[in-house]
Amino acid sequence: MPLYEYCCILCNKKEEAMQNHGEPPIICSDCNEPMFKMVSSTSFVLKGDGWEKDGYTGESNRKKQS
Predict the structure, then answer these.
(1) What rounded mean pLDDT belongs to the chain?
(2) Distances (CA, A) of 50 to 2, 38, 43, 45
(3) How many Cα atoms within 13 Å fall on the side-chain side of residue 50?
(4) What is the CA radius of gyration of the chain?
């Protein structure tokens, strides 16, 4: 189950909630208004030389054609 970050428009309070994808937004515990889902960074990182070596970047494709 994913962890989502929410922020209240009125009081700017931030909370985290573990929810399924289609569940409705949580309600702020301070002002009882629906909170909006924030976009947060992920832990997904591409490492190593395989990504470029396999031809997924424009720069490496230009080098092969030269």
Answers:
(1) 80
(2) 29, 32, 19, 13
(3) 4
(4) 20
